[in-house]
Amino acid sequence: MTSVAVQTPESIPWWAGNARLTSLSGKLLGTHVAHAGLIVFWAGLYDPAVASVRVITEPTINPGRIFGYLSGAFGKQGMAAVNNLEDVIGGHIWVGILCIVGGFWHILTKPFAWAKKLLFWSGEAYLSYSLGALAYMGLLAAYFVTVNDTVYPTVFYGPLGLSTTTSGVITVRTWLATSHFALAVVFLAGHIWHALRVHVIAAGLDFQQGVINPARMPEIGNFDTPVNASDISLKFLANLPIYRQGLSPFSQGLEIGMAHGYFLIGPFVKLGPLRDTELANQAGLLATIGLVLILSICLWLYGSVSFQKRKPAQGELPENMKTAKSWSEFNAGWTVGSCGGALFAFLLLTNSSLFF
User: How far apart are CA 345 and CA 339, in angstroms?
Assistant: First the structure.
């Protein structure tokens, strides 16, 4: 039998509990939450009840009514039961206030002792937590889109439910709901994957050093399968930009960014609010670049908590990307490549008549 060491705040390694990292994590969380609070305030919205845009001058401030949606007081659909814009804007105001207050709270305070012991404190742990939150919100958004016609009017999104039009065209509501659901499933899978990695690393296992024995003896651990250990799979993985030998961090980021930017523009063009106008492609390009810049900031934040005091990062990053300098070069390549990929896709969409 093997003994299990009890981790104390002093004995937890840098990737599981660093004092600077835990302090920085509160500031990161606080900054995100505060910014989220600032973007939920709205003024004029389209009201399907009057079939026009109107300014909401008397939003519902009563907390009993706003938070009553969470308990199902207004229907089994919960928040999705809202049927008037006064309650919608009132809910945004409350969420905005709580996010801003919560943001400053986390910026000015440090995590509680119970949180330091219960949670893991590393860049990958934060990534796991964030993906879990995105998965939850994606599933909730998919449900909300499907059943609510106040925030998502039928005149713009089609009839309630997942359906097609009389001519067989899939409605925008169906596209939006299913895309939210599909992305939520991807985020949930990512959350589980990165959470398992964090726990495995915290347990002292190192896959790079061969702790999982490749011998054909299942009693000592063998994770080889015809899929993950086949020559085709290994060659495919070895030729991905992140693992391909001979590429600089900038080139790796450039290739990965080009692929992401090229494919990200599509959903914004086809599902964005200007999808039925002549500006759909331009709006999609700007939205994609905006998202790319946000992701670039996220990569920078990840690097700022993963590379402590110029020390090489631990984990399964490629050898040429384990320093702050190389990660910065990767991020720069990602930004340039993703913007370039989005611009290339925009040019193809704008000039599609030349090819068909």
Answer: 10
CA distance 21 to 106: 14
Token pair, residue 240, equals 């991905």
Please write the tens of the pLDDT for every residue from 263-322: 999 999 988 888 888 999 999 999 999 999 999 998 888 888 777 665 655 556 777 888
Alpha helices in the chain, H assignment, sequence order: 19-38, 63-68, 85-108, 113-118, 123-147, 154-157, 172-202, 231-238, 249-271, 280-306, 324-350
Q: What percent of the chain has pLDDT over 90?
A: 37
Residues whose CB falls within 8 Å of the CB of residue 308, separated by 6 or more in sequence, listed in order: 14, 18, 20, 21
Share of the chain above pLDDT 70, in %: 77
Does 336 have pLDDT greater than 90?
A: yes
CA distance 281 to 322: 38
CA dist 233 to 213, 219, 224, 318, Å?
19, 25, 12, 18
Buried b (16+ CB within 10 A) or exposed e, 143-162: bbbbbbbbbbbeeebbeeeb
Instruction: For 4-51, write each residue's pLDDT tens digit.
Output: 333 333 443 333 344 444 555 555 555 555 555 454 555 568 888 888
Q: Could you identify the residue written with the tokens 């330091």?
A: 116
83 phi and psi angles, rounded to 5 deg: -130, 15
Do residues 307 and 313 lie in contact, with contact meaning Cβ atoms separated by under 8 Å? yes
Question: Looking at residue 12, what is its pLDDT?
Answer: 38
